[in-house]
Structures are given as C-alpha cells and as structure tokens.
Amino acid sequence: MAGLAAMALLWPLTGLTGVGGGGPGRAFAIIGITAVVWVGVVGFGRVPRPVLTLTLTGVAFGIVATVTSMFLGDPGLLGDGAAPWMVVPALAMDAFWGFVAGLLALAVQRGLAGTDR
C-alpha cells in the first residue's frame, strides 16, 4: 500500500523536472497513470480485499501529497495557503477515488477468476 501511495510524489517530481508541462494536462496524466497502476497492481496481483486496500491507499496518497506540499511549498493543498481544515475533505476525496479504483480492481479480479475455470 505504501508503494502505491507514494505515487503522490509524481506531482512534485514532474513539477521539479518539467516533465508533462503544467496545468490540467499534467494533472490528468498523473491521475490516469495512478489509476491504471493501482487497478493493475491490485487487480492483477489478486490482492485480498481490493476495495478496502485501495480506499486506504487513497487516504495514504492524500497524506503523502499534503505533507509533500507543506514541506516543498509545492502548489497543492497547503502549499497554496489553503485553510488547514481543507485537509479532511481532501482526504475524503482521495479515499473516494481509492474506493472507485478498488471497485475496478475487484472487477478485474472477478474477470480473471472467470478465466481460471
């Protein structure tokens, strides 16, 4: 789970290196890559309880992203000077996206189970 949550580091890493440019294109690319990796690793890896695993991974992702933006001053939740109380809704949103990815990973697992017969 920690390795999957570490994908939150893609945002500051791409910002520091200039890879992907800026703006919404970079954000959508990082979100897409993260979703594909999460669903692929958990779905094809047949991780038990994929929905719970990726929901918790989403929370951990949000924590990593928040801490990173605080320390690097990177544009992000607290790096932009947002109110600290915004952390809770942001973590809830990350948990929701983890939940959605978990449902997709569960669908992958069930699809693979159907091909094992």
- What's the shape? globular
Mean pLDDT across residues: 86
Low-pLDDT stretches? none
- Percentage of β-strand residues: under 5%
Using only C-alpha atoms, the radius of gyration works out to 15 Å
Helix fraction, binned, reads over 70%
The profile of the biggest β sheet is:
none
Separate helix tally: 5
By helix and strand content, what is the structural category?
A: mainly alpha
According to DSSP, the number of beta strands is 0
**Span between termini:** 29 Å
Order of helices and strands: HHHHH
Q: What is the structure about, briefly put?
A:
This protein has 117 residues and is mostly helical. The protein is 73% helix and 0% strand. The chain is globular.
Structural write-up:
- The chain is an all-alpha fold.
- The protein is built from five helices and no strands.
- The protein has helices spanning 2-5, 10-17, 24-44, 50-72, 87-115.
- The model has no long low-confidence stretch (mean pLDDT 86).
